[in-house]
Amino acid sequence: MFHSLLFSLQLFASADSLILKDSLREDIVIQSVRASDQTPVSQTNLSKTEIERTHQGSDLPYILHNTPSIISQSDAGNGFGYSYFRMRGIDYTRISLNVNGIPINDPENQGFFSNNFADLASSASNIQIQRGVGTTANGTAPIAGSVNITTQNVQDPKFTKFTLGYGSYDTRRITLEHNTGIDPNSKFGVYGRFSLLSSNGFKASSGSEMKTFLFGGGYFGKKSTLKFNIFGGATESNLAFYAVPKSILETDYRSNINSQREKDAFQQFFYQVSYNFNVNKNVDFSAMGYLIQGSAPRFLSEWYNDFPYPISYSTFNLPDPNPTKTSSNFLINYQLNQLTRGGMFTSNYKNANFKAILGVHANTFSAEHKGSVQDTDLFPVGYKSGHVAYQNTGIKNEMSTFLKCNYTFFYKLFVFGDAQLRYTTFGYNAVDKPILRDNYKVDNLNWTFFNPKIGIRYNLTNKFSTYSSFGITSKEPTRLDIFGGNDKAVQNIKKDSIIKPEKVYNTELGIEYKSKNLSLALNGYWMEFRNEIAATGGINNFGYFYRQNVPESNRKGIELNVQTRILNKIILTNSTSISQNRIKEFTQTIAVKDVTTQFDVDAKTEVYKNVNPVLTPSFTLYQSIRYEPFSFLSAEICGRYVSKMYLDNTNNETLTTPDYLVVDAKMELNLSKLTKVDTYIRFSMNNVLNTKYFTSGTPTNNYQRDVSSIDTRFVEPNYYVGALRNIMVTAGVKF
What we know:
22-stranded antiparallel beta barrel; five-stranded mixed sheet; 57% strand
């Protein structure tokens, strides 16, 4: 693959001889998924300087959670390893992530694991966060919003940078970067980064080790560019994806109820190549191809005979070696091999007042899933470690096309229109196994969606503007939604019997003000859902939420993002979100368990009306004060507040995460004048007040039936903890 990319670069290098015009510095594909300053959508843009100031090696969510309506969670507690974020209370399977215009979300389960490309922020030139349906993105539909990352521009001046970090919990970071700039003769340049990150994690036995890289470059001519990027990495983690019961945390705040034998190893590599051609001053086009390979040779999950629920030998296609023994302990290795191949073509037309972008995208995806028994209390005669419990392949295909148009009236009024037609299919093939049969028929499922968006922006002055937009987006269920949280089909699947696609009607209204010392963005939103695919609160044995349709629900709120400079030395930054979120009616099925065996013996159905959705805070606040007394020194204090969140849709006050306030302190010392090269030292103390807080959680909510057939309700919250006071020191030199 790499050799063919180099050959293509050499082939196109002979076509042009002059340096690329500024209009081609960014791929047309990238422009097609990002919003401009004039696009009437709610957005926050993070510059490279802002990213570098925040990033000290922790995962992507810990860079984003300083912006409106985003909260983060880390399995390990300190932001290294498996970390996630929610936007407007909506989880990452309903947020679109793309890097240089290519979709990163897993097509089957529609999420993404940024620890597989950890430290990508070191190579990011900017990050755009769109909240709400925003503009059309390729791949997973943006229900809550989208995150668009653009990597290092090779056309920047030549540099070499070395970054070294060390902190609490034996957290380590080594990053080496080099950019050649563009050679004036060959018009060719490359950029490379290699990173090593590791941490023991805050929670017990939650450590991870990540090796990641990015290598990109291209040929930059007068009218055309040919660029490539290869990035990804390999991660090994001790698993900590189960929330810990409150009763355990009261005596051991760092407890991890995942077994020490539960570990995984995952690697993912992204290949992309793009060609851009400037036809004339009005027309240009771009073509991009990409390939994504992912594999999990090891995902060891331990099933106890009483947790997460009693499990029998037949579940893993084993005969019971002891008929009197109904369950056992199992160590299961879940294996996964994924391959995504895709391409897109984009054409751009523009004149003084009008701009239109036409895009076509298609990809095909396959994923082989396999579960095998690595260990159990007693293997039946004739069976041994490595016994295959199930094996199947999921196939997902997608085609879409979109048209975006902008028209400017009198340099003040901007009208925006965006329409996407998207078609996607899901198929399933299984290898039948003898005991728990895997011969269920799964129809080839397909969906067609039309996603329109319109909006206007009016510039009252060159500093002050207002905008409004309305958009509709629909999205299909994930593989786990279709299979009820299982990794295989456990019944015949027909389109009319599964979770329905969800649809959101999204209205945004905002004002923006930008001057030398003040940047302010205030917006209101109203998201009205039909058949929202809502989390129930519980998770499966992979850490994914169980979800179901709710016929009607809505999310309404106000978001503020403001930054101001006072006396040229003090910078105040504030991100505030206030929201009201409701599910009109939710039907909860609550298990009735035998108090002795903990087997499900019955179930009760309860209906709840006008409830708050899972893990959706009504108020979040981020406030920072940065003081820059000298050109070489800055200090910052920042606080993050998150109001209470419900762990399920019953809105039981016992099943909530308490509100929390976490205060961090940072200091940066620039030694460039002393060392004669760009040198800095950054020190951060996170959770200065040593606050115990819970970033997320899951509920235990069931009935316990005793020998007299009396049912007693049992509820207990389980939490993901945030790390106590910890430090991180980062030093960097760039020359």
